[in-house]
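Title: Prediction job returns without error message
Component: structure pipeline
Severity: low
Priority: P3
Assignee: unassigned

Description:
Job completed but the reporter wants confirmation the result is attached to the right record. Sequence as submitted:
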Amino acid sequence: MAVPIGSIVRTLVFSFSIVSASTSVAQTDNGSVELAIQQELTAPGPEGSLAGTLTLPVGDGAISDEAPVVLIVPGSGPTDRNGNSPLGISAAPYALLAEALAEQGIPSLRIDKRGMFGSMSAIPDPNDVTITAYGDDLLAWTQAIRDRLPRTDGGTRCIVPLGHSEGGLVALVAIARLPNPCGLILVSTPGRPLGTVLREQLHANPANAPILSEADEAIMALERGERVDVSAFHPALQPLFAPVVQGFLIDAFAYDPAALMAQTRVPVLIIQGLRDLQVGETDARRLADAAPEATLSFAPDVNHVLKVVSSDDTATNYAAYADPDLPIAQDVVEAVAHFLEQFDE
């Protein structure tokens, strides 16, 4: 039985100076209303610049010294700053989230990962990465935001990383190294080691039965820190465990998100959609159990790309991955905005 590569890709949790400005506009019953200013921002990478989009409420000069800035950390594989991927995701969840937050007066920065898209020049090989290396970039972005939005009183601007999916693991690893961190938001973030999550995802799909023994063999080897020869594996598995990504997978599999959560010393918000087909309630609760002081927020009808899905139908859920016209789930926006109120005082 052939296994569609696309079905495996969709269940995978992981894989890797201002130059212009524009204004987002929304239509209302009374005409067009300016919502946000979008500006390109850069930060230094290892060999070239990292690139991102800073989204500011209209009239950015009015941003208070106390206002936090949300740093949106992208999820797995070739996911761009908007939350889209050439692997079939065009829902633009990060762009929509940034605009929705700006409507509530909250600035944010969403970024391209090193070696990809606008950050292509940062490293020559986008597969030559680690979770810690991605965390290095968060340090660079934190400084870039503070340089762009300095406080008038000379204090330190509050930066709150918001990690989505694999980006949550990156943020968890990096948060202890960030200078003067003030908070952390984890959205659809695995609460178990990624090898465990991947194994569960593959086993949950009955169509994967013919390839499970090979997949389990590969995952166990990578968990031991060993590379695996996949040349004789089923063709659907070869991209998943391609030799060029095995170094990253070995590194990513070595982390236990709950253990990292237990060491986190800043306020944390955990947001989990209950129609998420990739990361589930078990993961969110494991993170929360590791840090009882964390805030846990469930979004009942929200899927992995932060869209509302009113049906249990899997096809309907995946259709939302390719629909940028579906608005961002308000449950997510409201949870983030409420959490940030504690810093804007």
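Comment from assignee: result matches the submitted record. The first helix runs from residue 5 to 10.
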